């Protein structure tokens, strides 16, 4: 179902958290979506997910003629974090999301900016901006 000649309808996998990712893809196709935004995070893609399973998901997307984008991991993560370990973990998970998007045949990865807990403190905010620019 094209919205018009230049626009496509896409659905996120988030409404299908109680279903498998395969069921979410099938449901999206049945609802008339032309693309699916797969959230590369829990519940469908928990930490340590084996990306070698992604070709099966790509095959399912191809079978239904669905384009794909990936929403990078974001639960409990923060690319603006002032904690080096959390920042590095976030970067690692976003890179895994990018790899997953590539394996699924997608071209778009959505990444959240994160949050700066003390945005009113000028020096702290500047450090957050620098870390985020380094992140992207």
Summarize this structure as a short list of keywords or feature phrases.
Xyl_isomerase-like_sf; Xyl_isomerase-like_TIM-brl; alpha/beta; two-stranded antiparallel sheet; IolE/XylAMocC-like; Xylose isomerase-like TIM barrel domain-containing protein; 40% helix; 4 helices
Q: Can you walk through the features of this model?
A:
Helix 3 links the parallel strand 5 and strand 6. The chain has a single domain, classed as TIM Barrel (Alpha-Beta Barrel), CATH 3.20.20. It is an alpha/beta fold. 40% of the residues lie in helices and 15% in strands. It has a four-stranded parallel sheet with strand order 3-4-5-6, covered by helices on one side.
CATH class: Alpha Beta
How far apart are the termini?
Answer: 34 Å
What's the arrangement of strands in the largest beta sheet? 3-4-5-6
Number of strands: 6
Q: Helix fraction? A: 40-55%
Major sheet: 4 strands, parallel
* Helix and strand element order: EEEHEHEHEH
Outline type: elongated
CATH fold node name: TIM Barrel
What low-confidence regions span 5 or more consecutive residues with pLDDT below 50? none
Arithmetic mean of pLDDT? 90
CATH architecture: Alpha-Beta Barrel
Class from helix and strand fractions = alpha/beta
Fourth-tier CATH superfamily name:
Divalent-metal-dependent TIM barrel enzymes
Oligomer: single chain
The DSSP helix count reads: 4
How many structurally independent domains? 1
Question: What is the radius of gyration?
Answer: 17 Å
Work out the strand percent.
5-15%
Domain Xylose isomerase-like TIM barrel: 26-115
Protein name: Xylose isomerase-like TIM barrel domain-containing protein
Organism: marine sediment metagenome
């Amino acid at each position: 179902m094209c919205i018009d000649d230049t626009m496509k309808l896409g659905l996120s996998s988030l409404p299908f958290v109680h279903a498998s990712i395969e069921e979410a893809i099938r449901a999206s196709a049945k609802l008339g979506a032309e693309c699916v935004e797969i959230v590369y995070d829990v519940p469908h893609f928990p930490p340590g997910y084996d990306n070698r399973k992604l070709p099966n998901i790509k095959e399912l997307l191809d079978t239904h003629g669905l384009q794909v984008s990936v929403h990078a991991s974001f639960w409990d993560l923060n690319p603006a974090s002032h904690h080096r370990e959390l920042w590095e973990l976030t970067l690692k998970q976003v890179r895994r999301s990018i790899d997953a998007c590539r394996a699924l045949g997608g071209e778009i990865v959505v990444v959240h900016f994160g949050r700066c807990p003390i945005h009113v403190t000028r020096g702290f905010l500047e450090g957050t901006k620098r870390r985020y620019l380094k992140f992207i």
